[in-house]
Design a protein that fits this description.
- The complex is a heterodimer of chains A (795) and B (62).
- Helices cover 44% and strands 17% of the residues of chain A.
- Chain A has 795 residues and is α+β, with helices and mostly antiparallel strands.
- In chain A, the strands form six sheets. Chain A has a seven-stranded mixed β-sheet with strand order 16-28-27-26-17-24-25, with helices on both faces.
- In chain A, β3 and β4 form a beta hairpin.
- The radius of gyration of chain A is 32 Å and the shape is elongated.
- The longest helix of chain B has 26 residues.
- The termini of chain B are far apart.
- The chains are: A alpha+beta (795), B mainly alpha (62).
- The interface between A and B is large, with 40 and 33 residues.
């Protein structure tokens, strides 16, 4: 951030979290902030001389979660916390916490300087790719729950649902394989140098020694480094399909067998250099592919939202009980802001529940005693007591989730390579047999030589490398723009989509809480206090929004004032102060679509609050360009009164569906797909999770990439939604890139086969052609994918 | 010509050394986190010593 020309009065973005400042601006120490949370984090950091946090990287700050998780208390329970603790000696404790919000250099800076914030923290070390922080604390000074709260306060809420730290590191195995292959490749090349230069065949002693050494170092390459290709090929043969690993495995074996025969018959090192080089390049391609998307975790599911323990009634007292151990019939207490972990029957008189988490709707729902409340709802206001009727794993949300997760089969993944390799194998077999028959008439003694030469040179190494490198590069390029794909298979899937379905709330509109605008007479401090007090316990989202607005605007923090709330109408305070809808207050409202709340005090209309749910920018252009190639559809949980609002954004022929519950959205996607359409579903929240999973490709939109996103095939930074058409075009261009690289590698193979068939392929030619073809294809793939520009273009 | 036999063995031993080092470094987790060390090295102050002082003299944070 450029500090010298920073003006807090005009800055568009929050100094801390870099979000746009929408409703009001808070200015502290010449910095502008979007909300109280961000301001507090800034103050906390600057008090402890951690201001350098903001110098490490732009957009460093994370907007702190306003919903405080109360259940960190579980961390102070000696038995429950065991699985999070690495080490304990007296009051010194070391924990490894998964902090999904770690996303940049500033995060590392802040977390590794945690000791400055609290003297109880002794040391903290961050593992960036895994998003883990290993923190040592002195429990006598700060309890573990205090550490968790502190982390939450500065925006890094620990995620206790996943077991990240014990995740096996598959990369390590690949590194070992790569090490052996590279070692063998380099050594054999070095020893083969005299062969390349045409060593006199009479130096049998040297030739034999180098050949046998080559054989020795190649053994681990065959059995360790290349084993995954054999496994995959055998697996494919078992289920009677063909995949690209089959020709690779055959090629590797042919190379190896031919070389072993050459070595054992004292005829030089054979093709060992090509063999080791081939395996080495294949593994590099794989490593590259892994690296491109390793750091992004797609697998966070809804359970990371759920509390890990809940307060259970046990006779007269209460105990903390892990969610998994809840039994049907247990009575649990859910406090304000906590999420209901499992389907239950309400025992308290009434409870107000926010189901926006599940359904996406903003309106809160009132439940009374005896009614069933479903998992995923958030309690707003008073504590609620309820009786469990379904254990968590069987609750409806989980079912919706699990059902989808297991069903998704990799239908088309690698389909193109499979098709091509099928032709490829057929062609190679055909050519070999034709060559064998022809040579039967010319010189039958040469047949085995020539057949192996054909198999070796036809080995589709370039072909095998072109897919991971082309698509790997595409993934990496898109990743730089905030569009992350789960794997290269998703690229192929996106290429096949013909229908795009958008969720409305949170996808087409901004996810940020409704922007408020106040017009009218200035609010006096006295009135502000009153309004603040009477809206404190109000359940309507508008009232809540006004409450928050007042808190920020007037720096208020006072107690609630009793007032009468009339559901869906407004609040009446002692018949002198009214706040609510136009009808409720009896004022004339202009005929607009805007949602307003009016304030009337002592029979005087003071002013009104206007709420905007803003659409993302650039939607209309995006839809226009998408409509050329795709059928568009919108599903929304809201009712159809919003149609007029969004209709103009979409071209004709767009389908609209309203009043869609999560299951309806999923059913709609299924219906489309049963008609043969391939759907790209774009959604944002958990309420779209089922639909995202059902869809041919699920794309989750995320305001903040490091925040929760439902498990999906891809994640797109919300602000880049407007470039979606260009991204899809880029992905489509990938098909063309692949064709070029395929053509290139085929030319190599055909030239090689040409030589091999005529019996003039020397070891030297094969040794040069094969690694060279791989390198060229890798270079071509990289060149094609990197030279195409995709928005947003950096200055 | 005898020299080349020695060189052959030397090259193998040397390569084995590098392989050994590579495997050791991979095993000890040096490739686990290829990002944070590059950031950590640029910090102005040294958080570790700072903390140790804090532990011993028990002084409050700055």
């Amino acid at each position: 951030m450029n500090v010298s020309d920073y003006n807090p009065e005009t800055a568009k973005k929050c100094f801390h979290c870099s979000d746009d400042i929408i409703s009001e601006r808070l200015i502290v120490a010449d910095k502008a902030f979007c909300c109280n949370g961000c301001k507090n984090v800034y103050l906390l950091l600057s008090q402890h001389e951690l201001g350098a946090y903001y110098l490490q990287e732009d957009q460093a700050g994370i907007k702190p979660d306003s919903t405080q998780k109360e259940l960190f208390a579980v961390l102070d329970d000696v038995t429950l916390r065991k699985r999070y603790i690495d080490f304990q000696e007296g009051s010194i404790i070391r924990v490894t916490l998964h902090l999904p919000q770690i996303h940049c250099a500033s995060c590392i800076y802040l977390l590794e300087h945690l000791s400055k914030l609290d003297s109880g923290i002794i040391q903290a070390t961050v593992n960036f790719p895994k998003r883990l922080a290993t923190i040592t604390i002195n429990e006598a000074k700060i309890p573990l729950s205090g550490l968790a709260s502190l982390l939450t306060k500065i925006g890094y809420s620990p995620d206790f649902s996943t077991d990240k730290k014990n995740e096996p590191s598959i990369d390590k195995r690949l590194l070992f394989q790569l090490g052996f292959a590279g070692f063998a490749f380099g050594s054999i090349m070095l020893w083969s140098f005299p062969e390349y230069l045409g060593i006199d065949k009479t130096y049998t002693g040297f030739r034999n020694l180098s050949a046998y050494l080559s054989l020795l170092v190649s053994i681990p390459v065959l059995f360790y480094s290349a084993q995954d290709y054999f496994k995959s090929a055998i697996g494919a043969i078992r289920i009677k399909t063909l995949n690209l690993d089959i020709p690779i495995a055959v090629g590797i074996l042919a190379l190896y067998a031919r070389s072993v025969v050459a070595i054992l018959s004292n005829d030089g090192p054979g093709y060992m250099d090509s063999f080791a080089g081939f395996v080495f390049f294949l593994l590099i391609g794989k490593w590259f592919q892994n690296k491109t998307y390793r750091w992004l975790s797609f697998e966070r599911d809804f359970s990371s939202y759920f509390p890990i323990a809940v307060i259970k009634k046990s006779g007269e007292s209460t105990v903390l009980c892990p969610i998994e151990e809840l039994l049907i019939g247990d009575e649990i207490i859910i406090r304000n802001e906590e999420i209901i972990p499992c389907d239950s029957v309400l025992s308290s008189d009434k409870a107000t529940i926010d189901f926006s988490f599940v359904t996406g709707e903003a309106d809160w729902i009132e439940k009374t005693v005896g009614e069933t409340v479903y998992a995923g709802g958030k309690i707003c206001g008073e504590n609620a007591i309820m009786t469990v009727i379904k254990t968590t794993s069987r609750s409806e949300l989980t079912q919706l989730w699990n059902e989808q997760h297991s069903k998704k089969v990799e239908l088309t993944f690698q389909s193109r390579q499979d098709r091509i390799s099928r032709y490829f194998i057929a062609a190679v077999l055909l050519i070999s047999s034709v060559a064998a028959i022809s040579w039967y008439f010319i010189n039958p003694r040469l047949i085995p030589e020539i057949i192996t030469a054909i198999l070796i040179v036809a080995c589709p190494c370039a072909l095998a490398l072109s897919v991971p490198f082309t698509y790997g590069n595409i993934m990496r390029q898109l990743g730089k723009k905030g569009f992350y794909l789960r794997n290269t298979g998703i690229i192929e899937r996106i290429q096949q989509c013909d229908t795009i379905v958008f969720d409305k709330t949170g996808t087409l509109t901004e996810q940020q809480s409704k922007a408020i605008h106040y017009t009218g007479e200035e609010i006096s401090p006295e009135l502000a206090m009153l309004l603040f007090g009477i809206t404190k316990h109000a359940t309507h989202p508008y009232a809540q929004a006004i409450h928050e607005w007042l808190r920020n605007q007037f720096q208020l923090d006072s107690k609630a004032i009793d007032a009468v709330e009339l559901a869906g109408k407004g609040i009446n305070y002692q018949n002198s102060l009214f706040i609510g809808s136009a009808d409720f207050l009896g004022v004339d409202s202009p005929a607009t679509n805007e949602a307003c709340s009016y304030v009337k005090w002592n029979d005087q209309l003071i002013g009104k609050f206007t709420f905007h749910s803003t659409f993302r920018e650039g939607l209309s252009d995006l839809m226009k360009s998408l409509a050329i190639n795709y059928q568009l559809a919108v599903v929304s949980g809201d009712n159809s009164k919003d149609l007029a609002q969004i209709e103009h954004l979409f071209p004709e022929g767009t389908l609209f569906r309203f009043n869609q519950k999560p299951l309806d959205k999923k059913a709609y996607i299924d219906e489309l797909q049963q008609n043969g359409q391939r759907v790209l579903m774009i959604g944002d929240g958990l309420n779209d999770a089922g639909a995202l999973n059902s869809a041919f490709v699920g794309l989750a939109l995320s305001e903040n990439l490091v925040r929760f996103t439902p498990a999906s095939d891809s994640i797109l930074k919300a602000e880049n939604l407007k470039y979606l058409a260009q991204y899809i075009a880029y992905i489509q261009a990938g098909k063309r890139f692949l064709k070029y690289t395929f053509a290139f590698s085929l030319v190599y193979n055909l030239t090689g086969i040409g030589f091999a068939v005529t019996g003039s392929l020397t070891p030297f030619v094969a040794a040069v052609i094969m690694p060279l073809s791989s390198v060229t294809v890798v270079g071509l793939a990289t060149f094609l994918t990197l030279t195409k520009r995709i928005p947003p273009v950096e200055k | 010509m005898g020299m080349i036999y020695i060189m052959l063995i030397v090259s193998l031993v040397l390569a084995l050394f590098f392989l050994g080092f590579f495997l050791w470094s991979a095993k000890s987790g040096q490739y686990e986190d290829d990002y944070s060390p590059s950031v950590r090295i640029l910090y102005e102050d040294e958080p570790l010593t700072h903390n140790k002082n804090q532990l011993h003299d028990g002084s409050s944070n700055n």
